[in-house]
Fold this protein.
Amino acid sequence: MALHQVIAARREEVIGRWLAEVRGTLAPDAMPHLELVNHIPEFVDEIMAALRADAGLPSRGVTADDGVTAAGHGAQRLRLGFSLDAVVREYGPLRDAIVAIAREAGEVPTFRELHVLFDAIIGGIADAVSEYNRQRDAELLRQANEHFAFIAHELRNPLGSATMAFQLLQQQGELPASNRSVSALERGLRRTAELIDHTLRVARVSSGVELQRAPTTLRALLDDVEAGATSDADGKQIQVQVAIDGDQPIEVDIRLVRSALGNLVRNAVKYSATCSTVAVRASVAGGRATIEIEDCCGGLPPDKVLSAFAPFVRLDERQGGFGLGLAIVKQAADAHGGAVRVQNLPGKGCIFILELPV
């Protein structure tokens, strides 16, 4: 008797043996039967379909290799609070139950049947883990956006009061008009207001709000960004060089992209050595805008390259800040369907590359 015939004949016994193995070990004893069993019966049917297909037999209406059942299982396990380790380990007892029941029935699975069975189990694990991770990451991002939005809302009122007080002092002539400190304070208030506005906007975008695209040019975007970085660059005697190739009109969410570019350029100035150069190169071709920001930071530590765009990761622990700048850049890129990456130049610096469909 072929392995798929053994499974078909003793399907409920396979599921029952798997259930007995996982209950109380990988899952709580009190978990309802239906929730624990979940997609396992359908997955067993997919294993049978894979074995039949390998033997050249019709699948009897059951599809294999689509990953839908295992993916749904992974998503359900996340909702129930299973750990990722528990999700992976659930599949081993199912494999063992199938092999044990076949041998008890006096059938020894062939090498080919075991190969198909193990492939199906490994594929199920991969699909379940992939969907588990995707759902978990989406939930973490949603929670982070809610958290940032809450903080941004709470900061709006005191910042608004500080801005009104600053403007009142200016109107009353209490602040010298040409003083560099006063200008720096004004820029700081404006930049903070833009950051708060951007944080709220990113939270809305990540929740599915449509982008507000508007026509602009790379020159207009980068002129604003360059002006915003002038004070910091002058303080470190850093020259910001901007070169633009193909400055035709583009359509993007101007606030999001301006914020992303501002974070990239400010980071480049912040981490570059004194008396160095930050090069900004931009071009539009093939329906995509590409902006490269090359700094003179000396290069990234190997452990920072892959995690550079994660929230709360600081590229240099000696520098202040919360490590949100590059995470904001990635959110803006993702919202546009674009991408951001970093090219490490050890001993010299980094090139951050932002690509956006326009």
User: Anything to note?
Assistant: Residues 142-206 form a domain with the Helix Hairpins fold (CATH 1.10.287).
